[in-house]
Write a structure and sequence with these properties.
The protein has about 750 residues and is an all-alpha fold. The protein is built from 28 helices and no strands. The termini are far apart.
C-alpha cells in the first residue's frame, strides 16, 4: 500500500513549486536586466522592499477588487487540494481490490474531498467573483463594509488549515519519525485525516477517537462564520449601495443571484454552526444531543441536511447568475425572460429550505412526511427548468460566437439538464430507495457540481480576464481546455450514472471485477478533468505576463448589440484615464433582442416568441389534419385489401387506458396526427435534410413511418408484408406532403396579409 500522506504532500509540493517557478520565471522575463547584464545590490534591495510592500498591501487591503482576487486565489488552492483527493480516489478505483490505498485511506479521501470542494472551493470563488464585479455592476464604490469584507476572507485560510490539519500532522509526524522515537511524537502519529464521510453522520462522528475530528468541526464552524459575514455584506451592498440608476427592475441578473445566495447562506450556515457545536459537546463533554437516549442520530441528519440542501443552491445559484450574464454576450441577444429568471431564482431560494428530507428517504421517517418532501422536491425542478428554457430561447436565432466562454455555457446547460432530470428521478421515493446507495447519486450530483458550477467559473475567468488584467489569455488554449473539461465531465459522470443504474454501491474502495472497465473509463475521464484544470491554471498565470495587451475599450464587441454593461463601462473609463485610449465604437449597432435580418427558420416572423409559437402551432395543426386525412386514404385502402389489420388501432386506445376499440383508436390516431406529430416536426425541422419545406416533410414522414410499421405489425408475411410496408410508406409520404404544403400555404398567406395591413 502507498503512503497517502507522503504521496499527496509530495504532489501538492511539486504543484506549488511549479506554479511558483512559472510565476518567477515569467516575471523575470518581463523585467529588463541592468546595463551590464548583472543584477546590482541596489536592485536586489529595491526588489525586496517592493515585495515587502506588496505583501503588506495584500494583507491589509480592504479594496473590493483585491479581496475578490484573494478569494479566487484561495478557492483555486482549495480546488487543487480537493482535486488531488479526487484524482487519488479515481486512481484507487482503477482496480477492484483496495491495492493502492487502504479502505480507511479511501474513506478519508472522499471525506476531505467533499468538504474541501463544497465549503472551501465553490463558495469562496463565487464570493471572489461577486466581490470584484458586483460593486461595478451596481455602480457602488466598494462593498458596504470593506473591513468586515476583509475579515470575512481572512477567517477562511485558518479554517481550511484546521479542517486539513490531519494530513499536515501525518506528513510532519512521518518526517520526525525518521530522527525521533515514536513515543516522543505520538501526538503527530495519532492525528490523521477524518474518514467518517463528508456528512459526518452520528454516531460514528461522536464515537471515533481521532482528535482531528474536533479540529475539523472547529474549522467548519469558523468557515461558517466567515460565510455568514460575507453574506451580510453582499446583502447590505445590493440593498443600500446601488447607484441611483440601478433599481430592482433593472438590477443585473448576477447581482440578483448573489443577493438570493447570500440570503440562503444567512439562514443556513448559523444552523450548521449550531449543529457542529452540539456535535463537539457530545464528543468532549458527554452531552446526548445525538445519542440514542437524547435526540438520536437522525437529529444530526435533519440538522445537517437543513443546511446541506440550501447549500447546494448556495453553490448553484451564482453559477446560473453567471450563465444568465455571460451567455447573452456571445449570442448577440438580450437575456430572454429577465423577470421569469428573477422569479425562478427567488422561488429556488424559498423552496430550497423545504426539500432537505429527500436525503433521508431511506431512514425510518414517517411515510407521510416523506411524501410531502417528495412533492416539494419534484416541484423545485420547475424554477430550474424555467432557467433552462430561457437560456435556450436566448440562443435561438442568435449570432453565436464559438468562444471558450460560450462553449462552457453550452456545456453547462447540457450537464445541468442531465443532472437535473436524474435529480427529479431521485426525488421519487421508490426510485431513491433503490438508487440511494449507488453511483447513480454520485453521477447525478457531480454532473451539476462539476458541470455547470466550475464551467461557469472558468467561463467568468475568461470573460472578465481582460477587465481584470488588461491582457488577453491564449484563446486557442482556452478553447481546447473548455472542450476538454466538457468532454471529461460527460465521460466520467455519465459512466457513473450507468454503473449506478446497474446497482454498483458507492463509498466503497472494493467493488466486483465486472465493473472494472467502466471504473477505468470514469477514471480516465477524471484525469482529463484534472488535466484541463491544470491547462486553465497555466493559461491564467502565463497570460498575466505574456498575454497580448488589450488594445480596445470594448474587448468583446458588446457595444454592437447594446450589451456594454456597467463593469465594462468602468473598464473603458480606466483605459481612457490610464492609457489615453479613444472609446471604441462599432461600425453598426442593433438591438440585442432582435436577430439581424429576417429569421430563416419555421419560427420566423414578427411578434414575441409566445405569439410566434402559438401562430405556428395552429398552422401546423391545420397541416397535420390535412396530412392525416390524406394518410387515412392509403390506410383505408390497406385495410380493404387485407394488408393492415384495423384491430391494431384498438391498442392505441388500450395504451391510454380506454377500451380496446378500433374506432376510439382511430380517433386518437387522428388527434395525434393533428397535434403531436406536427409539433414534433416543428421542433426538429431545422435539423432535417432538404432544401425545401416539403423535402424535409418527406424525410420526417419516412422516419416516423418506421415507428408506425413496427407498432401496427400484426404478423403479415410474404406479399402481404411487402404490401403492408409499401402502403405504410406511401401513406406517410402523403401525410408529410399534406402537412408541409398546408403549413407553407397558411404561412405565406399570413405573411401577405401582414404586409398588406402594414401597407394600408
Amino acid at each position: 500500500m502507498l503512503n497517502r500522506a507522503i504521496v499527496e504532500g509530495t504532489a501538492l509540493g511539486v504543484l506549488a513549486l511549479t506554479v511558483l517557478f512559472v510565476w518567477v520565471w515569467e516575471r523575470r522575463k518581463a523585467r529588463p536586466e541592468s546595463d551590464g547584464g548583472y543584477t546590482t545590490r541596489e536592485e536586489i534591495e529595491f526588489e525586496i522592499g517592493r515585495i515587502q510592500s506588496e505583501v503588506y498591501r495584500w494583507l491589509t487591503t480592504t479594496n473590493h477588487r483585491d479581496i475578490g482576487l484573494l478569494y479566487i486565489a484561495f478557492g483555486t488552492v482549495a480546488a487543487l487540494w480537493g482535486g488531488m483527493d479526487a484524482m487519488m480516489l479515481r486512481t484507487e478505483l482503477l482496480t477492484p481490490p483496495a491495492d493502492i490505498w487502504t479502505p480507511e485511506t479511501y474513506n478519508a479521501l472522499f471525506t476531505t474531498h467533499g468538504l474541501t470542494m463544497l465549503i472551501f472551493f465553490v463558495l469562496p470563488v463565487f464570493f471572489g467573483i461577486g466581490n470584484y464585479v458586483l460593486p461595478l455592476l451596481i455602480g457602488a464604490d466598494d462593498m458596504a463594509f470593506p473591513r468586515v469584507n476583509a475579515i470575512g476572507f481572512w477567517l477562511l485560510p485558518p479554517a481550511l488549515i484546521m479542517v486539513r490539519l490531519g494530513l499536515m500532522m501525518q506528513v510532519l509526524g512521518q518526517i520526525l519519525n525518521l530522527v525521533l522515537p515514536a513515543d516522543t511524537i505520538r501526538f503527530f502519529l495519532t492525528m490523521r485525516e477524518v474518514s467518517i464521510g463528508w456528512t459526518l453522520y452520528a454516531p460514528l462522528s461522536v464515537q471515533q477517537p481521532n482528535p482531528q475530528i474536533d479540529m475539523l468541526l472547529l474549522g467548519l464552524h469558523l468557515s461558517g462564520i466567515a460565510t455568514t459575514v460575507g453574506a451580510i455584506n453582499f446583502i447590505a451592498t445590493v440593498v443600500y449601495e446601488r447607484d441611483e440608476g440601478v433599481t430592482w427592475a433593472n438590477l443585473d441578473i448576477f447581482s440578483w443571484n448573489m443577493l438570493v445566495t447570500s440570503g440562503l447562506a444567512l439562514f443556513a450556515f448559523p444552523l450548521l454552526g449550531s449543529a457542529l457545536v452540539m456535535l463537539l459537546l457530545d464528543r468532549n463533554l458527554g452531552t446526548a444531543f445525538f445519542a440514542t437516549e437524547g435526540g438520536g442520530a437522525i437529529l444530526w441528519q435533519h440538522l445537517f441536511w437543513f443546511w446541506g440542501h440550501p447549500e447546494v443552491y448556495i453553490l448553484f445559484l451564482p453559477a446560473t447568475g453567471l450563465m444568465s450574464t455571460i451567455l447573452p454576450k456571445f449570442v448577440g441577444r438580450k437575456l430572454f425572460g429577465y423577470q421569469f429568471i428573477v422569479y425562478s431564482t427567488l422561488g429556488l431560494g424559498v423552496l430550497s429550505f423545504g426539500v432537505w428530507a429527500h436525503h433521508m428517504f431511506t431512514t425510518s421517517a414517517d411515510p407521510r412526511v416523506k411524501l410531502s418532501f417528495m412533492a416539494v422536491s419534484i416541484a423545485i425542478a420547475v424554477p430550474s427548468a424555467i432557467k433552462i428554457f430561457n437560456w435556450i430561447t436566448t440562443m435561438w436565432e442568435g449570432d453565436i460566437r464559438l468562444t471558450a466562454p460560450f462553449i462552457l455555457c453550452a456545456g453547462g446547460i447540457g450537464t445541468f439538464i442531465i443532472g437535473g432530470v436524474t435529480g427529479v428521478f431521485l426525488a421519487v421515493i421508490p426510485i431513491d430507495i433503490l438508487y440511494h446507495g449507488t453511483y447513480y447519486v454520485v453521477g447525478h450530483f457531480h454532473l451539476i457540481v462539476v458541470g455547470i458550477i466550475p464551467f461557469l467559473m472558468i467561463a467568468a475567468s475568461y470573460y472578465w480576464y481582460p477587465l481584470i488584467t488588461g491582457r488577453w489569455y491564449d484563446t486557442r488554449l482556452a478553447t481546447f481546455q473548455s472542450l476538454l473539461i466538457v468532454f471529461g465531465s460527460f465521460v466520467t459522470f455519465m459512466t457513473l450514472l450507468v454503473i449506478g443504474g446497474l446497482g454498483l454501491p458507492r463509498r466503497q474502495a472494493i467493488y466486483p471485477p465486472e465493473y472494472q472497465f467502466a471504473q477505468q473509463i470514469a477514471t480516465v475521464g477524471g484525469y482529463i478533468i484534472g488535466l484541463s484544470a491544470l491547462l486553465w491554471l497555466y493559461n491564467m498565470l502565463v497570460s498575466y505576463w505574456r498575454g497580448s495587451p488589450v488594445a480596445t475599450t470594448d474587448p468583446w464587441g458588446l457595444k454592437a448589440t447594446n450589451q456594454f454593461t456597467r463593469e465594462w463601462q468602468w473598464f473603458e473609463q480606466r483605459m481612457i484615464e490610464k492609457y489615453d485610449m479613444e472609446p471604441t465604437e462599432p461600425e453598426t449597432t442593433r438591438r440585442s433582442y432582435a436577430p439581424e435580418g429576417e429569421p430563416t427558420g419555421l419560427a420566423g416572423g414578427v411578434g414575441t416568441v409566445a405569439q410566434t409559437v402559438s401562430r405556428n402551432a395552429w398552422m401546423a395543426a391545420a397541416g397535420g389534419f390535412v396530412g392525416t386525412v390524406l394518410m387515412s386514404g392509403g390506410l383505408i385502402t390497406a385495410i380493404l385489401i387485407g394488408v393492415l389489420d384495423p384491430v391494431s388501432f384498438g391498442e392505441i386506445a388500450e395504451l391510454v387506458g380506454l377500451p380496446a376499440s378500433p374506432a376510439i383508436g382511430a380517433v386518437l390516431f387522428l388527434v395525434g396526427g393533428t397535434v403531436t406529430w406536427p409539433l414534433i416536426f416543428l421542433a426538429f425541422s431545422e435539423y432535417l435534410p432538404g432544401r425545401l419545406l416539403f423535402e424535409t416533410g418527406l424525410v420526417f414522414a419516412t422516419i416516423i413511418s418506421s415507428g408506425f410499421a413496427i407498432a401496427f405489425y400484426t404478423g403479415q408475411s410474404g406479399l402481404a408484408f411487402v404490401g403492408y410496408l409499401a402502403f405504410v410508406l406511401v401513406s406517410h409520404w402523403a401525410y408529410g406532403i399534406g402537412l408541409t404544403v398546408t403549413f407553407q400555404y397558411l404561412k405565406s398567406d399570413e405573411a401577405l396579409r401582414t404586409r398588406t395591413d402594414g401597407g394600408g
